[in-house]
Amino acid sequence: MREIISFMHISLDGFVAGPNGEMNWIKVDEELFNHVGKRIGETDAALYGRVTYDMMESYWPTAADSPDASKHDIEHSAWYKGARKVVLSKTLKGADLPNTTIISDDLAENINKLKQTDGSEILLFGSPSATHALIQENLIDGYWLFVNPVILGEGIPLFTNIKHKVKVKLKLVPGSRQFTCGVTELNYMVDKQ
Asked: What's the CA gap between 18 and 22, in Å, rounded?
């Protein structure tokens, strides 16, 4: 069965974006891009909320076409164009979107069907609202977090209004690391025992 892994940058105090969705506090460098790119390259599917999907769709399909495209832009653009994309949205329309499936209702049923398909893990990129919806349904199998050396004080929290009130035990995956830019990777899987 495929697993859904939430991939997020997070502040030390637990926010994934500033109060207005700002992400200018996220630290990235070549070392981090290369590390993330390796794992993403082993994945064949991405899950997004509509806002993140719109942002990705506005940049990645043509990012490699720019004359000053970085190595990261070229590689991620190629991956993005080939990856299966799943978007959680009640408003997005367009059954003709290339290699894209829209889930607008019956979230748990549709995600569980998706998990039964062939392929690698499914990375849930950013998308705080989509992440919150999946947390409510206990559908996330792991968290791939990049803790940034910043305290925001306010913003959009990763874990908020969790209704199921059930403890979710996590196991730290060996190999987490610290990057020279000060970001620390933490990779947790849900302990299903």
From this structure: 5
